[in-house]
Amino acid sequence: MGERVAFIGLGVMGAPMAGHLAKAGHEVWVFNRTRGKAEGWFAAYGEGRAVKVAGSPAEAAAGARLVFACVGADQDVRAVTLGEEGAFAGMAEGAIFVDHTTTSADLARELAGAAAARGLGFVDAPVSGGQAGAENGVLTIMAGGSEADFAIARPVMACYARQARLLGPAGSGQLAKMVNQICIAGIVQGLAEALNFALEAGLDAKAVVEVISGGAAQSWQMDNRAGTMIDGKFDFGFAVDWMRKDLGFCLGEARRLGVSLPVTALVDQFYGDVQAAGGGRWDTSSLTTRLRR
């Protein structure tokens, strides 16, 4: 049996995630700051289902035991949680807010404290898998919060995730997402350099990839992005602008911890070059454009 839930933020990730909840039989109340997107979501998922477009985060959250959000950045999360029209104002004591936005760990801890002061639960639960993962319902979720709150949220998140794991108290999910992004940054840069080397050497780069992808060089990025990198196609996927936001969190947290991230810092600068060339909305695999002659 479905239950009454809310979903705030209907972008390229949030829209399909909320759609999976509706298709699973949950009663889903949604809110998006751009009303047209919410109405478009309703047109796509609302027919014959218990869904409603709310006029504010507080209205969407009222009566829901679980309130999910996937918006843009720290300030966007604050905007939809705090204040008279924020989700926290509409949530009943004991309800749980699950934030799928990639934010700073400090924000997760801040909101966990604000939620606790109101008798609410809070789980920071950033995701990995990109737009395709959201659309196919196979995201990976890294979570921070209490075991009790996570246990309640996990079965519902299974509507759009193939893996979800609690990694510690509030903020732990965001820290784990930073680990994820640090790994990706280095891998994409390495792949970009390798493919450019293959092309400059006169090799059939796609044939080379077919050979080496069966060995130790294999990665998700190679499997899913090598072909499009070779073809120079970047109008899809996870945008450079968002990656730079995420790497900013990584570098800021590293400074706080006194940890060195030399490769991450360098790749962040390279993404800055891509932005300066007009590629802020290109897929992160566009790092290869810096190397092409």
Report on the architecture of this protein.
- There is one protein chain.
- The chain is α/β, with parallel strands linked by helices.
- The chain folds into 2 domains: 4-170, NAD(P)-binding Rossmann-like Domain (Rossmann fold); 175-290, N-(1-d-carboxylethyl)-l-norvaline Dehydrogenase, domain 2, CATH 1.10.1040.
- It is 52% helix and 13% strand.
- It is built from 13 helices and 9 strands.
- It has helices spanning 14-23, 35-45, 57-61, 74-81, 87-90, 105-117, 130-136, 147-157, 172-200, 205-212, 220-231, 240-257, 262-276, and strands at 4-8, 27-31, 51-53, 66-69, 96-99, 121-124, 127-128, 139-143, 161-166.
- Strands 3-2-1-4-5-6 form a 6-stranded parallel β-sheet, sandwiched between helices. It has a 3-stranded mixed β-sheet with strand order 7-8-9.
- Helix 9 crosses helix 11 (220-231) and helix 12 runs antiparallel to helix 13 (262-276).
- The chain is globular.
- 45% of the residues are buried.
- The mean pLDDT is 97.
